[in-house]
Amino acid sequence: GESVGLHLPTLSVQEGDNSIINCAYSNSASDYFIWYKQESGKGPQFIIDIRSNMDKRQGQRVTVLLNKTVKHLSLQIAATQPGDSAVYFCAENGVTGGGNKLTFGTGTQLKVEL
Amino acid sequence: EAGVTQSPTHLIKTRGQQVTLRCSPISGHTSVYWYQQALGLGLQFLLWYDEGEERNRGNFPPRFSGRQFPNYSSELNVNALELEDSALYLCASRQRHGGSYEQYFGPGTRLTVT
């Protein structure tokens, strides 16, 4: 069945270092992927997305890499800041009998140490 | 532009009771999604409404139901509450036609069942 999972439940990094959060997916038909950030007590917020016809996309301090061969997605955060501390979710869009549906991974807690 | 709003913010109910949660999507968005997020866990897809109809539902029992109104706002109803229904219930909206797959989340309703 469909599943999206994360390799590491918790990631601790030093302020200023780069962070890499990984995600594995199993639905090879997924055509779109999103990374969300969820701060404590808030709803998830969009960070960056990537379509399956791309292998890299850059935003402000963030880069998403997609490796369709091994069904792997990663989020890279440059110069990690204390405000980056949050839970990060990857999500894949797959077409089901009922239409498009986002499937979310478990999430990775990113902790930024000063 | 106003974001997705949800009410109430917090709710405490006892086992066996019924609850109704409300969501107002971003203006112009016709799709509304409901998710359940148990403490420390990922997002579990509950329901998807678009143009007033239920398009898809996740693996939840029938006591979880909802509806979407002509103004695209939505309600989530949970009957016969159980202790394990305690969670953050998130609503998200999307502009189904001409937009991306990105879903915009509200702040959530924290439901505690005692």
Task: Tell how many strands the DSSP assignment of chain B holds.
Answer: 11
Largest sheet of chain A: 6 strands, mixed
- How much of the sequence of chain B is in beta strands? over 45%
Instruction: Report the C-alpha radius of gyration of chain A, rounded.
Output: 14 Å
Strand content of chain A: over 45%
Which characteristics define this entry?
heterodimer; A: 114 residues; six-stranded mixed β-sheet; 11 strands; 0% helix; 58% strand; B: 114 residues; mainly beta; 50% strand
Describe the structure.
The complex is a heterodimer of chains A (114) and B (114). Chain A has 114 residues and is an all-beta fold. Chain A has strands at residues 4-5, 10-14, 19-25, 32-38, 45-51, 56-58, 62-67, 72-77, 86-96, 99-104, 108-113. In chain A, the strands form 2 sheets. In chain A, strands 2, 4, 5, 9, 10 and 11 form a 6-stranded mixed beta sheet that branches. A 5-stranded antiparallel beta sheet of chain A has the order 1-3-8-7-6, with no helix packed on it. Chain A is globular. With 114 residues, chain B is mostly beta strands. Helices cover 0% and strands 50% of the residues of chain B. Chain B is built from no helices and 11 strands. In chain B, the strands form 2 sheets. In chain B, strands 2, 4, 5, 6, 9, 10 and 11 form a 7-stranded mixed beta sheet that branches. The A-B interface holds A 32, 34, 36, 41-46, 49, 89, 93, 96, 98-107 and B 4, 33, 35, 41-43, 45, 48, 50, 55-57, 90, 92, 100-108.
